[in-house]
Amino acid sequence: MALILCDQRQRLLRTDGNILVRGGAGSGKTTIALAKACADLDAQRLGPLGKALFLSFARATVARVAEQATATLPRALMPRIEINTYHGFAWTILKSHGYLLCAKRGVALLLPAKARAHLAGLVGAARAARQRQLFENDGLVAFDLFPTLLTELLQTAPALALAYARAYPLIIVDEFQDTNAEEWQMVAQLGRHSRLIALGDPKQRIYDFKGAHPRRFDEYIEAFDPTPFDFAGENNRSPGTAIAQFANDIIDGEYRAANYDGVTVTCYRGRSLRPLKQEILRAVARLRRNAEWSLAVLVPANTLAINVFDYMAQAVHGLPAYPVDILVAAEGPMLAADLIALLMEPRSHQHLAAAILDGLAAFELGRSEEASGGALRKAARYRDLATAVRGRGLDGLEARGIGPGIRNLMDTVATLALSGDPMTDWRAIRACLNASDRKEFQAVAKEARHMRLLRRGAQIESRLAEAWRTHGAYRNARALLAAAVVDDQFAATTRPQHGVTVMTIHKAKGKEFDEVIAFEGQFQRYLQRTGADDERSARFNLHVAATRARRAVMIMTPEDRPCHLLPLRTSHDQ
Ligand SMILES: Nc1ncnc2c1ncn2[C@@H]1O[C@H](COP(=O)(O)OP(=O)(O)OP(=O)(O)O)[C@@H](O)[C@H]1O
Prior knowledge:
Pfam families: UvrD-helicase, UvrD_C_2. 51% of the residues lie in helices and 13% in strands.
């Protein structure tokens, strides 16, 4: 699509200094920011070697921006526009210079799945203190610590700050409404020597639970006196539909129209996912007439995304199976995979038993976002047992409970003749876990089925195959797996999102699709609790979900307990 440059946009392209761009979903903030980067490069405003840095939160957004950029920007300028996530950018600096701030000679990434195990049960200041301790004593850097450490590093080493500012004289910060206090400090530090362009939409603020706050815009205005631009009321994503109007009405809680073009709100019956699958198949039949098409199925919770993904892959009740992709947090599968990798490694029974117990503890603590009291108690017990085994050998395993289960598992795995084909051996070990009479191991096997949610499957396989070729055993399988997962954390998926993709609403931020189906389950609701803040955040989430669509959005809610935030009369009238 050719870029339309109105007067306001042309003025923006000529503006020097810091800039603030506000505007609703799909108004064109990202697009104009990229055009601005090009204009500045063209006019030699970034010096002979300077690059424009585009920072976003989600890898998904980075992929879309990169895709869009390749289609619309002059090729010669592309190498001088760097598109990255806040985390990816911070990590490139911290991994080489972070050691300047801690007692270790080098730093390592604390993967989110492992961080959960280290931080389970800690909140607020206690959590922050523990993260700091892990960094200072062990050189482990949790994601949450990235912005604080980068700010400190650039303050401690002014020469480094100047060098980075020379490399990136223009920094575009996307999704500014969702920055938390630490991220804002980091942006402010970067802005001391570089020009900033902040892009934001107050109505798309969906990360309050991570510290986003409405005052962020005022803080930026006060500190950097940016030239403001506002594209309020513009909609370049879904022109000709009433999707944007509907999405704004969701936030206001007042539905001004009886019908909205491009929007369907519908109740579904029963408890199965069949009605959702039927709608997906209908949408696919409509969309696939075009060569490249995209449909997003957006749900309120990770667990529901996985259920939908599994359901879609089955041919049930006469409905055909359909290929679907999924974007979810993969902490559970990652911890399960870690245990499988452990069982692939050559190791003595005593070491293995203790390591299995530690792995089970990490799995209990890290498989869900917040560990329950039960999970904390179980994990503590496993760790005590692991200490006993390390002290007294296998006698430390008790005769009841998990002890005999571990012995049986180790015996079964020991009888396996590994083949050297990583996938075959992986499956064989997963089958051993599944066949265990202990629920704990069955749960690991179940979670490991979602290993394909980790995008580095092929890389993990080839690293394991290489280990086998070199050593005749899967030596260091866990470390190889962890390294591949670290790579995965920072890989920007440049794969365009085609076909059907299931994800949470939060993951959909910054993306766009031909059509969107938003779906809530009986228990995984748009509105989780009743309270003014919960209601506000549910409205903002629905706003983000609806505005991802270019042509049509369908919002589904269960008939016996419909979401009261939705205009249900509209659906009956249709
Ligand atoms: N000036 C323009 N002329 C033509 N098309 C445009 C223009 N600006 C944006 N678009 C198109 O509109 C769509 C939305 O644009 P963009 O992603 O830049 O909006 P946004 O404000 O960043 O959205 P969001 O806040 O929802 O992420 C894209 O498909 C883009 O190609």
